Amino acid sequence: MTIDKLLKGLKAWDPRAIGRAISLVENGDDSAEAILSSLDEDLISEATILGITGPPGAGKSTLTNGIISQLRQSRKRIGIIAIDPSSPISGGAILGDRIRMMQHATDQDVVMRSMATRGRLGGLCATAGAAVRIMASCGCSNIIIETVGVGQSEMDIIRLADITLLVLAPGLGDDIQAMKAGLLEVADILVVNKADCKGADILAMDLEAVTRKGSATPTPVSMTVATESKGIAELLDQIEKVDSEHRDSGERQKRRRGAHNQEVLDWCLEILRPRLLAEITKKGLPLLGDPRLKAKKILEEQ
Amino acid sequence: MTIDKLLKGLKAWDPRAIGRAISLVENGDDSAEAILSSLDEDLISEATILGITGPPGAGKSTLTNGIISQLRQSRKRIGIIAIDPSSPISGGAILGDRIRMMQHATDQDVVMRSMATRGRLGGLCATAGAAVRIMASCGCSNIIIETVGVGQSEMDIIRLADITLLVLAPGLGDDIQAMKAGLLEVADILVVNKADCKGADILAMDLEAVTRKGSATPTPVSMTVATESKGIAELLDQIEKVDSEHRDSGERQKRRRGAHNQEVLDWCLEILRPRLLAEITKKGLPLLGDPRLKAKKILEEQ
Question: What is the ipTM score, two decimals?
Answer without folding.
Answer: 0.78
